[in-house]
């Protein structure tokens, strides 16, 4: 992007409302010498501060170095979004670019200045990071939780903002029920979201997670391990025998697909004369979501 574009900017398309909708129409850069309160302008890197509650917490050092080298060669192509905050500016979207610009020893960078509320700031930061696939599952879940707790957003409203289903939001929020060490493994990429979901509600989830990492277990193996670890009424249940490589593969895939769609643990017990489909929920909110979907409401 040049400093003085010669043609009107085309609206950006993206998830949910999109950054263009959240930010509104971005005006043309100000004439030299003017100091508009909002718009596109250039600011010193030292005049900006990161937002303390920005969704992204984990920054890959190697990726930052790579971005810094690119910025040093080509400059910062996409502006950083900021808002006035005290005597300086607070970063709304683009903290990774700001960090990389510092490493590239840039003194000034292009920015988009906007007057934004705290809630709007969190929304924009969340959408921008999700559009770039920059957030891990825990960071995304924590951002949803803050928008719910601090600003009164509903799961359905959050789903509209990021263009994802309510069940996706509910599914991610359940990850916050995991012990902190397990959540850290997700942030670090040691286990995937599927592994973490399987461990929700399991006895000694932290110990099971360490075993998943040590033995490099698949999500399916982790689900079986978590089921075996759950306490049963009466006498202990015999461990589930290992499943052959291709046995019931279609049913397993269907369980995962329905689980991702509903944000719940789904089990299918299929036999020659039919079977049983079971859904496990842990909160009344999840039960309400299932009832709405079954009755055709909120779809």
TrEMBL record:
Report which superkingdom the organism of origin falls in. Answer: Bacteria
- Record keywords: Chromosome partition, DNA-binding
Q: Which SUPFAM superfamilies match?
A: ParB/Sulfiredoxin
**InterPro entries the UniProt entry points to:** Chromosome_partition/occlusion, HTH_ParB/Spo0J, ParB/RepB/Spo0J, ParB/Sulfiredoxin_sf, ParB_dimer_C, ParB_N
- The annotated region (Disordered) lies at 1-56
Domain ParB-like N-terminal span(s) in chain numbering: 41-130
Q: Name one GO biological process term.
A: positive regulation of sporulation resulting in formation of a cellular spore
**Gene Ontology cellular component?**
chromosome
Q: What does this protein do?
A: Involved in chromosome partition. Localize to both poles of the predivisional cell following completion of DNA replication. Binds to the DNA origin of replication.
Q: Which family does it belong to?
A: Belongs to the ParB family.
Protein name in the entry: Chromosome partitioning protein, ParB family
- Membrane spanning stretches: none
Gene Ontology terms, MF aspect: DNA binding
Q: Which Pfam families match?
A: HTH_ParB, ParB_C, ParB_N
What broad taxonomic lineage does this protein's source fall under? Bacteria, Pseudomonadati, Pseudomonadota, Alphaproteobacteria, Sphingomonadales
